[in-house]
Design goal:
It comes from Campylorhamphus procurvoides. Its main location: cytoplasm. GO terms for molecular function: nucleic acid binding; protein-lysine N-methyltransferase activity. This is EFMT1 methyltransferase. It is a single chain. The protein is an alpha/beta fold. The protein has one domain: Rossmann fold. It has five helices and seven strands; from the N terminus they run ααβαβββαβαββ. The longest helix has 22 residues.
C-alpha cells in the first residue's frame, strides 16, 4: 500500500535551515524595531525605499559624516539633515547632549521621530514650517534624491535658507560643477560608501575646512 507521506513535497534540510534563519532574522528585525532604546534609530530600523530613491550609506560612512557634522556644528550646535536619513539615524545613536538635529525628509515613515521630523518635498524648497527659522542651523547635510540639476538647484534653495554657512553635500561625482555653481562647495577626498553599491560614483562636497580631506 502507498505511504501517505509520499505525495507531500519534502523540503531539503538545507532549504529548511535557510528558511528558519530567514524567519528568525525577520523576527529579530521586527523585535529591534519595537524594543525601546536607541535601537529605533539604528540603520535598518526603517528600511531604505528605492521607490523614493533612497540609498542608505554604509555604517562606516554614516558614522563618519555624523561625526563630521557634530564637530562642524560645535558645542550646542544645530544640525539639519536634508534627505539624508542614514546620517540622521547615526546622529541619534551618538545621542549627543550638546547638539540638536532635525530631519527634513519626504518619507513619512520618519515621522516616528516626532517633532524632529519635518516633511520635505524638494519641489517646494521653501515650503517649511514657520518655526524653522532662516539661517538657524550650524551645518546642513544634504543628499538630494536625484542626480539632476533641477533637484540640486531646488535642494540648494532649502540648504541656503537653513544654514548659517556650513554645507556638507553628498551627491554624484557628475554634479561637481553644478554643486560649485549653486552652493559654492568643493569636492572632498573622503569617498562615501553605500550599503549597496551604486552605479554612479558618489562624492562629498563642503564649503568649509572639514575633516573629510
Amino acid at each position: 500500500e502507498m505511504d501517505d507521506d509520499d505525495d507531500i513535497p519534502q523540503l531539503s534540510s538545507h532549504t529548511l535551515a535557510a528558511l528558519q534563519e530567514f524567519y528568525l532574522e525577520q523576527q529579530q528585525r521586527e523585535g529591534m524595531k519595537t524594543s525601546q532604546g536607541f535601537n529605533q534609530y539604528s540603520i535598518g530600523s526603517i528600511e531604505e525605499d528605492w521607490q523614493l530613491s533612497q540609498f542608505w550609506y554604509s555604517d562606516e560612512t554614516a558614522s563618519c559624516l555624523a561625526k563630521e557634522a557634530v564637530v562642524a556644528a560645535g558645542e550646542g550646535g544645530r544640525i539639519a539633515c536634508v534627505s539624508a536619513p542614514s546620517v540622521y539615524q547615526k546622529l541619534k545613536e551618538l545621542d549627543g547632549k550638546d547638539f540638536s538635529v532635525r530631519i527634513l525628509e519626504y518619507d513619512k515613515r520618519f515621522s516616528v521621530y516626532g517633532e524632529e521630523f519635518i516633511f520635505y518635498d524638494y519641489n517646494q524648497p521653501l515650503n517649511l514650517p514657520e518655526n524653522l527659522l532662516p539661517h538657524s542651523f550650524d551645518i546642513v547635510i544634504a543628499d538630494p534624491p536625484y542626480l539632476s540639476e533641477e533637484c540640486l538647484q531646488k535642494t540648494a534653495e532649502t540648504i541656503k535658507y537653513l544654514t548659517k554657512g556650513k554645507i556638507l553635500l553628498c551627491t554624484g561625482a557628475v554634479m561637481e560643477e553644478q554643486a560649485a555653481k549653486h552652493l559654492g562647495v568643493k569636492i572632498c577626498k573622503f569617498i562615501p560608501k553605500h550599503s549597496r553599491n551604486l552605479a554612479n560614483e558618489f562624492r562629498c562636497y563642503v564649503n568649509y575646512a572639514s575633516g573629510l580631506d
